[in-house]
Amino acid sequence: MLLIFVIMAPLLLSAGKALAAESASTENDSSPMVVIPAGPFPMGVPPGDRDGGRDEYPRHEVYLDAYAIDVYEVTNGHYLNFVKATGHRVPQNPKNPTRNLWQGDAIADSLVDRPVVNVDWHDAAAYCAWAGKRLPTEAEWEKAAKGNHDWRFPWGNVEPTAKHLNYNQQWIGEKTLMPVGSYEAGKSPYGVYDMAGNVWEWVSDWYRPDYFAQLASAGGVTRNPKGPSDSFDPAQPGVVKRVQKGGSFLCTDQYCARYMPGGRGKGEPDTGTNHTGFRCVRDPDPAPAAK
Prior knowledge:
It contains 5 helices and 14 strands. By secondary structure, the chain is α+β, with helices and mostly antiparallel strands. It has a single domain (35-282), classed as paralog of FGE (formylglycine-generating enzyme). The strands form 5 sheets. Strands 12-11-9-13 form a 4-stranded mixed beta sheet. It has a 3-stranded antiparallel beta sheet with strand order 5-8-14, covered by helices on one side. It has a 3-stranded mixed beta sheet with strand order 6-7-10.
């Protein structure tokens, strides 16, 4: 049974982070969520912006119905509950076992509030389904990251610093990742944390470099886009990919100085990495029938 309630006192993570917000709780996942209100927003690189990948143009208007999104990236602690409840495979790096963080189906206490990594798209989708949620669409993720603004970053137009996000790092194990919610200065207009840096985040959409152009060419305002019906990457024809958002700890000064909310990563859906995680969304409960 899905419950919606308003937190009157700050809701605490074990890492000591607090948030007073509307929260959606399911039987399996008590992670705090925030409701993103219905309405239009500008998606893609703002006109006249100094940079952005060609697959991030052109800017186009999108209308989204209301939804709730996780305030934080899914942590190892929450993912451990999923693994124990379902017997799902533990997160493991498919190419480099030295980048694994779990010890079998157990984790160190220091990992509990750090984002889970080494999960592929199917793992992420399975967790969200178990939690009574789903992966966000690319549009839902981007609106949660910047709201109705044409900001370059989730926090505004101030250039990125170490106070805003976890970036400019090389892998040194678990300490490469920061506990979720560590960057108060970097949160989005809706109070969503780590929408830049820390780990890339899977979304539900297939990747095509021409998708934004297709939406813009249709004219008008696109309502609740779900992404293209298939995947194509000219750099690797025949290799299907899903979109990733937000950058990671590997993000350099040069990369992170570009337009972040609309930045588009991509990855093969059956391959996890040590710099990719996810968060979930859920649709609002249906309104009660009129009597």
